[in-house]
Amino acid sequence: MTDTTDWPDWFAEGFKHVWLPYTQMETTPPPVPVTATNGVHITLANGRQLIDGVSSWWTACHGYNHPHIREAVSEQLATMPHIMFGGLAHEPALSLAQRLSLLLPGDLNRVFFSESGSVSVEIAMKMALQYWINGGEKQRRKFIGFEYAYHGDTIGAMSVCDPEEGMHALFSGLLPEQHIVPLPRNDAEFVRFETFLGEHAESCAAIIIEPLIQGAGGMKMHTPDTLARIHQAAKHHDLLLIADEIMTGFGRTGTLFASEQADIAPDIVTLSKALTGGTMALAATVATDNIFDAFQSDDPEAALMHGPTYMASPLACAAAHASLDLFEQEPRLNQVSAIEQHLLRALEPCRDMTGVVDVRVKGAIGIVQLKNFSEHNQFKARFIEKGVWIRPFGDVVYLMPPFIIEEAELSFLTTALRDVVGDWSVRR
Which of 244, 267, 362, 380 is catalytic? Predict the structure, then answer.
């Protein structure tokens, strides 16, 4: 357990009034108070610094407090912090929509902004359903998702998460029932997948997938060829394909978007997390011209009736522009490649440790999967003792560091991970 005797008064008093995410607060040690961030470092209230190994829930791709993003947000704050996007428009949002469209493949040209990844998935699902409804195919009411999938914590998004492996089993019966199937990875599995689609496609609106890497459902990976074959199957059975790039987008897998590696153009893409470089909340649901055209009508009921209050926040759009500038001006994808090579070398020794099920690396993501693992709180405390912030979940200990991390800092992270996993392995 982390020593809390030197935590500040504001923590002791304020902690009585918060409800933490993904936490059984009766049994879980309290969180660690933070007072500052910079680069790849988190400064704790007691003055200690930790190297962040998970990029603040996978968002801080450029590290913390990058001066270019900070300056862009400051300038926007002085001009127009926020304005409603209903009946009014502003340059940061419109130019960002154009910029995203130019970066994405195919004719993904229509951007609907929101504030969180879960909501962007909800919007994608509404778009997909109403696309068919507006076209007269009202029977297409279900979605096809995959085992180990995670797409968010709101009701619609929960319905396409894996109900067995995910965090939402308690809500069975309340959630809409979708088709959750094994993600096919070989010829035999694709035969079964095609058979399933042949039987159910006419009642389904879309397939939804996290391209190349399934995130919070277990960090499972599949190849670009697998993704391409799923895209081909969707087209063959007249289904839309939604690519949830919330975690994988903006360089994390080695290309700006994971879908690029399969050379596919999804019908709808969801984006968030690193979109603003970890600065503030912003999400986008991007649809093709074909999807958008299905909503164009003299009938008001054919419109997409959705509108988050803070959608297209000028502040967040300014941060997103600055983040995209950095992908153009600084060698982010080269840095991701260097991180990948380091992780491949540094995590490989874990493979021979007792209790280690698998070691996986893709882009700036390194995963060590453990057998019968339950010591999440102990691991977090050990990592803090070693000067790093690494937060295991499920059966995985993983690294997703900021892209700007230096070799020495990355070595510090991987050494800490090997040491803690190694100690656990010896105790088994």
Answer: 244
Buried b (16+ CB within 10 A) or exposed e, 42-77: bebbeeeebbbbbbbebbbbbbbebebbeebbeebe
Catalytic site residue 423?
no
Helix (H, G, I), strand (E, B) or coil at 53: coil
**Predicted confidence band of residue 4 (pLDDT cuts 50, 70, 90):** low
- CA 182 to chain CA mean position, Å: 21
CATH fold of 9-62+333-427 reads Aspartate Aminotransferase, domain 1 (3.90.1150)
| CATH 3.40.640.10 fits domain 67-329 | yes
First to last CA, the chain: 20
Q: How far apart are CA 246 and CA 11, in angstroms?
A: 31
Q: Which of 3, 6, 22, 263 is catalytic?
A: 22
142 is known as an active-site residue: no
Burial class of residue 190 in the structure, from the number of CB atoms within 10 Å of its CB (0-12 exposed, 13-18 middle, 19+ buried): middle
Query: Annotated catalytic residue: which of 64, 148, 150, 398?
Result: 150
289 is catalytic: no
Contact 114, 284 (CB under 8 A): yes
Q: Where are the domains of the chain?
A: 9-62+333-427, 67-329
Q: pLDDT digit string (tens) for 58-109?
A: 999 999 999 999 999 999 999 999 999 999 999 999 999 999 999 999 999 9
Cα distance between residue 270 and residue 211, in whole Å = 11
